[in-house]
Amino acid sequence: MWEYTDKVQQHFLNPQNVGEIDKPSGTGDVGSLACGDALKLTLKINDADIITEAKFKTFGCASAIASSSVLTEMVVGMSVEEAAKITNEDIANALGGLPKEKMHCSVMGREALEAAIADYRGLILPMAQGEVVCECFGVTDMEVIRAIKESSLRSVEEITNFTKAGGGCGKCEDKLREILRNTVSNISELPVVKIKPKRMTSLQKIKKIEEVLEREIRPGLRKDGGDIELVDVDGDFVIVSLRGACKSCHKSQTTIKEYVEKKLRELVLESLIVEEEN
């Protein structure tokens, strides 16, 4: 359970400036529903370059909502030049702090603000021109480098906390470690630190289950004319559907428990319970 400050809870339970400005001066769209977090920030800016109104729509957790809400309060009355200097740390500090695992929500707020200002100015953000290193969340190398420099990040886990990169399938971790090593000039060699197991996110769990089904389980079933499909993942319950010869086989429950469940427990999470779709 995350420990949220009173300010975070206040902005989560009673978010300010929710909605979308009609004919905005600038719009910033960041994240995506597929990634689990998305934010649309719209600004109204007058002829003197002063932000007179700010509204947001977001899909995300309590920290994402709170970060978006407090950001709209921060920028109203500021000049565009002043607003452009707001950092993710400023957003987090305005909320009295965020759990380290949720700092990416303040980063998303800052990125939406930058995108809205760039839209107003008719510019293309440099971050958008970087090379995507995390396919799960669409994070570029330039975003990672900036996070490392601005927030003095020193581990892949910290990079994930601030950018979400590496928080999905984990395939980009070696690339993130390489970027970290190259960016932090005073560290000649970064050891691979084994971190104690942490609770797996729903996205990570589903992706790992799909990978194991495809790589370890499906080939064996197909040799005997069968197949398997992932139907749903509800907590630790994995619902699957046997196909082909496996579906009518009288040993289907043995296949589910002694083969599929055992493999998933071994390679994904030992608490998983596999059941066949009714």
Describe the 3D structure.
With 278 residues, the chain is α+β, with helices and mostly antiparallel strands. The protein has three domains: 6-123, Sufe protein. Chain: A (Alpha-Beta Complex); 127-183, Arc Repressor Mutant, subunit A; 202-276, GMP Synthetase, Chain A, domain 3. It is built from eleven helices and eight strands. It has helices at 6-13, 62-75, 80-83, 88-94, 103-121, 141-151, 156-163, 173-183, 202-223, 245-248, 252-267, and strands at 26-32, 37-45, 51-59, 132-134, 139-140, 226-234, 237-244, 273-276. The protein has a three-stranded antiparallel β-sheet with strand order 1-2-3. A three-stranded mixed β-sheet has the order 6-7-8. Strand 6 and strand 7 (237-244) form a beta hairpin. The two termini are 34 Å apart. The model is unreliable at 192-196 (pLDDT under 50).
- Quaternary structure type: single chain
- Derived from helix and strand composition plus strand pairing, the structural class reads alpha+beta
Give the overall form.
Answer: elongated
Radius of gyration: 22 Å
Order of strands across the main sheet? 1-2-3
Number of strands: 8
Mean pLDDT across all amino acids:
86
Q: Helix tally?
A: 11
- Taking pLDDT < 50 over at least 5 consecutive residues as the criterion, the unreliable ranges are 192-196
Helical coverage, percent range: 40-55%
Q: Assign the CATH class of the largest domain.
A: Alpha Beta
CATH architecture of the largest domain: Alpha-Beta Complex
Please summarize the sheet with the most strands.
3 strands, antiparallel
The portion of residues forming beta strands comes to 15-25%
What gap, in angstroms, lies between the N and C termini?
34 Å
Question: What is the H-and-E element order?
Answer: HEEEHHHHEEHHHHEEHHE
Tally the structural domains.
3
Question: What fold name stands as the CATH topology of the largest domain?
Answer: Sufe protein. Chain: A
